Amino acid sequence: MKKVLMITYDFPPMRTSGVYRPVKFVKYLKNYGWQATILTVKNPHRVAQDENLLREVPKECEIYRAYSFEPTKFEDKIYQRIYGTPKRKKLQLAKVKDFVKGLFLSPLNGFLHNWIYIPDTKIGWFPFALFKALKLIKRKKFDVIYTTSSPLTCQLVGLFIKLLTRKPWVVDLRDSGVVGYGELYKYKLRVKIEEHLLERILAKADSVITVCEGNAKDLIEKFDLKDGFKYQAITNGYDRDDWDGLETFFDLFAKEKFVLTHVGTLYARTSGEFFSALNELLKEKKELEEVLQVNLVGYVGYEDLSLIKRLGLEKNVRLLGFQIHSGAIKSMLNSNVLLLFLGELKTSQQQFPGKFFEYLLAKRPILTLGKEGEIAQALYKSKAGILVHPRDKEKIKETILSLFSRKKRGELKISPDFEYIQRFDYKNLTLRFAQVLDRACSGHVLS
Q1: CATH number for the domain that contains residue 429
Q2: Which of 358, 401, 414, 418 is most buried, judged by most C-beta within 10 A?
Q3: Per 3-state DSSP, what percentage of the chain is helix, strand, and coil (rounded to 5)?
Q4: How far apart are CA 210 and CA 175, in angstroms?
């Protein structure tokens, strides 16, 4: 078997949206003549864990972990020390704390994140991961190196390995890095630094994988690349094994209520006018007040939490928090409608979140708030849902009411195009991934 060293910061037992892609690739690679070895982080700055995910990794796959200096842990401790006081003291110290935060902590935090943590807050993993990787490469004679990001620090490790060993190198960009994200940065110089780094990574890589065609096109246009042939789009996907024994799960609760569920992190500026529309709808249609329920599974950002509280939606919006993967699937199945919030940023229309493909298997209508793009096209082709502009409040209300009416009539079932959906099965996606590895190690050109 050919051997690949897969370098990924996100890996079980850590539970993030980024762990599923490498885990599923590792799970099925052996079917296509590849033996994977994993290099990941030993002490990630994460809280959510799911030990069950490690069971999917083949026993013969060796996992190595490198230490990471995580400066954001110290940030958390400082904030906890200042703000984690007993409630009876909070009112007394509020003004002092706000003064300290405004004068010292916020500017310091901004300086660190803009000018020290380059390319990201995981830069403290770089020297340890590089050292460990070079030792492994010397011992095990890998045919190809694979790195996946975010964090972009992972690609920085790959770049130095390439420069030092000349090994074939496959770069997997789960997002397109700073390209398309310029509006999220305050300083143009910071953007230029990351763009230069990304350009060097793309130039040295033997193959580049993106999660959609749009990301590859953006990169090629941005850097005026002449080697577009080495770009391959491989989306995220689903694994039918995760659904074994669960597909018939349906709680009676969802028959009595009208349940809309969002699974995964609810990022800022993606929900659009949904909660405002929901608030108006509950006031206009008293029938909905007792039966409509929105479940939010996973982390919800401060912006949306504040909006939910300000609008007084606590009765109809349930925060279910983190769930293990099987629990998240059950939440999908125990729903009438699934919510996908993409927002208005161009990049959010091109990320193909993993939950989208699992939504397809759940056979529930997908109410998507976003703009036209590759995800919208997949939504149409799969015949699985509806796209509404995130700022079109009236259309959002109209769509929710329409879905509710269909539910009352017993007509909410959908018939997705599973011939189309099958292309997103991780068994099929891993075959394409293996073909990229084959090409990289058999016909790569040293840069």
Answers
A1: 3.40.50.2000
A2: 358
A3: 50, 15, 30
A4: 7
Tell me, yes or no, whether 20 and 131 share the same domain: yes
Question: Domain ends where: 52, 86, 116?
Answer: 116
Q: Tokens 């060097």 appear where? A: 200
pLDDT in tens, 108-150: 556 566 657 677 888 889 999 999 999 999 999 899 999 998 8
Structural domains in the chain (count): 3
- Considering the domain architecture, whether residues 42 and 97 belong to the same structural domain is answered as no
Whole domain around residue 95: which residue ranges? Answer: 71-116
This prediction has a pTM of 0.81
CA dihedral (311, 329, 234, 365) positive or negative: negative
Closest CA relative to residue 175, chosen from 194, 159, 152 = 152
Structure tokens at 52: 């069950």
Predicted pLDDT at 119 = 78
- Domain check: are 251 and 281 in the same one? yes
Per DSSP, 142 falls in state -
Specify the pairing of strand 292-297 against strand 258-263: parallel
For residues 341, 345, 351, 354, the Cα torsion angle rounded to the nearest 10 degrees is -10
What pLDDT, on a 0 to 100 scale, did the predictor assign at position 115? 57
Out of 116, 135, 153, a domain closes at 116
Distance separating alpha carbons of residues 372 and 181, to the nearest angstrom: 18
